[in-house]
UniProtKB/TrEMBL annotation:
Gene3D superfamilies: 3.10.450.350, Glucose Permease (Domain IIA). It is found in: Cell envelope. Keywords: Hydrolase, Membrane, Metal-binding, Metalloprotease, Protease, Transmembrane, Transmembrane helix, Zinc. InterPro entries: Cell_wall_metabolism_enzyme, Csd3_N2, Dup_hybrid_motif, M23ase_b-sheet_dom, NMB0315-like_N. Coiled coil: none annotated. One of its GO terms (cellular component) is cell envelope. Residues 72-130 form the DD-carboxypeptidase/endopeptidase Mpg-like N-terminal domain. Residues 297-393 form the M23ase beta-sheet core domain. GO terms for molecular function: metal ion binding; metalloendopeptidase activity. The lineage of its organism: Bacteria, Pseudomonadati, Pseudomonadota, Betaproteobacteria, Neisseriales. This is M23 family peptidase. It comes from Chitiniphilus eburneus. Its main location: other. The chain crosses the membrane at residues 20-41. Its cofactor is Zn(2+).
Length: 435
């Protein structure tokens, strides 16, 4: 009986650990493959790569190869409490002239800005004479010491950053920002994510528990440490079961936009929400619910948001009214293409210098949320009109956005397929983690 029990338990145990092992492999392996295949490789068509002109990019494998090919390079990670003298000794530098120079020359001073975790490198001859000492300061300057004539010389230049990509995904449980924080998505990338999808998703009113996102974005690193983020290259957002995808694509150099997998531009003729969706304004409506009314009751949409939240032009157009307007309080009206116009009410204030007759572009800040006029709390009253009559914009088929022509789509397709594969992989990893 006792023996039987042990026998019957054993297979269950080994099954359990085998499953755990498989899961771990499923999570770890595809990511490694991904990084090897795409992590630092160039992404898509050359003209679609956005590189800021101030930095020269150096791909990481190139850097590693260069170091490996050259004999006697050593590198040390700076530890807390390290001195430059101790580091130079650990780097195998046995060169009194070099040590004297580094100790006394004012140009070598930045070498003393030691930060734990950063890397310092040296190249020496077999008997320890210094050929090159290299260190990138926290400010991003590469300090290099080399022999010159009978002495040494210090060179200081902006360090070369390696361009790579990062993949992050998350599921919304309480709020979008809680989810992006948990996914460790940088705020600047979160801002881009919202901006990409806000033509399709009303972030103030339509986010649901269980919504999820995946993002592929550019990163710039120095010595393996992320220095800054670049553009989102691809993203997806599943909102209330509806999956939206976006891929950055430049049809001509410098003329890029986000497109759906069908090649339709995600830039819509009208924003879903004129109120900027931010860490502060998100979730505000929950605390301020009583002010929300049915659209039918007063022919507008109310967006509860803290006083001072930025209000943006819903579309390109011309300002036709700025000022006090009865129950609307401080209000702005904008005339758009065709017979469309929009009205923004109860504002706390206007963007400085805003006046009637001024041209505005979609997304321009025009004013700030307030509670002027007949309002019981801070909110934006937003009206969407056709030929002067209020309509519910969510029930309209608004003008179509730009679509890639067949020739462009043929170039776009392989690139978007590759991005889609990345995002699918991310989603699988996220699912495995949630299991
Ligand atoms: Zn209202």
């Amino acid at each position: 009986m006792y023996e039987n029990q042990i026998l019957s338990e054993k297979p269950a145990h080994s099954q359990g650990s085998a499953r755990a092992g498989w899961l771990a492999a499923a999570v770890a392996l595809p990511l490694m493959v991904t990084f090897a295949a795409y992590g630092v490789a160039e992404f898509g068509p050359r003209e679609s790569i956005h590189v800021t002109p101030v930095t020269t990019t150096l791909e990481a494998p190139e850097l590693v190869a260069r170091i490996a090919d050259t004999p006697f390079w050593r590198e040390e990670v700076i530890r807390s409490g390290d001195t430059l003298g101790a580091l130079i000794a650990r780097l195998g530098v046995d060169d009194d002239a070099a040590k004297d120079f580094i100790r006394t020359d004012t140009a070598a001073k930045p070498l003393y800005e030691l930060h734990p975790g950063r890397v310092i490198r040296a190249q020496t001859t077999t008997d320890g004479h210094l050929l090159q000492l290299s260190y990138v300061t926290a400010a991003g300057n590469q300090i290099t010491v080399r022999p010159a004539g009978s002495g040494f010389r210090v060179n200081q230049a902006p360090a070369e950053m390696a361009r790579g990509t990062s993949f992050k995904s998350g599921v919304i449980h309480s709020s979008l920002f809680a989810a992006t924080d948990r996914a460790e998505l940088p705020d600047e990338v979160t801002r881009q994510l919202i901006s990409i999808f806000e033509g399709e998703i009303d972030f103030h009113r339509r986010l649901r528990k269980g919504d999820r996102f995946g993002v592929v974005y550019e990163t710039y690193t120095l010595d393996g440490q992320e220095q800054k983020t670049g553009r989102i290259l691809a993203a997806e957002f599943v909102n209330a079961g509806r999956k939206l995808s976006a891929v950055w694509y430049e049809s001509r150099p410098g003329d890029g936009a986000y497109y759906s997998l069908k090649g339709e531009s995600l830039k819509k003729s009208f924003l879903q929400t004129p109120v900027e969706f931010s860490r502060v304004s998100s979730g505000f409506s929950m605390r301020f619910h009583p002010i929300l009314k049915e659209w039918r009751a007063h022919k507008g949409i109310d967006y509860a948001a803290p006083t001072g939240t930025r209000v943006r032009a819903a579309s390109d157009g011309t300002v036709t009214f700025v000022g006090r307007k009865g129950a609307y309080g401080n209000a702005i009206e904008i005339k758009h293409q065709g017979a469309y116009s929009t009205l923004y009410g109860h504002l706390n204030g206007f963007a400085s210098g805003l006046r009637a007759g001024q041209r505005v572009s979609q997304g321009d800040i025009i004013g700030f949320v307030g509670s002027t006029g007949r309002a019981t709390g801070p909110h934006l009253h937003y009206e969407f009109k056709i030929a002067g009559n209020q309509v519910d914009p969510s029930k309209l088929n608004l003008p179509k956005s730009r679509t890639l022509d067949p020739r462009e789509f043929a170039r776009f397709r392989p690139y978007s397929d590759q991005m889609q594969a990345q995002l699918n992989l991310l989603a699988r990893v996220e699912l495995a983690r949630a299991d």
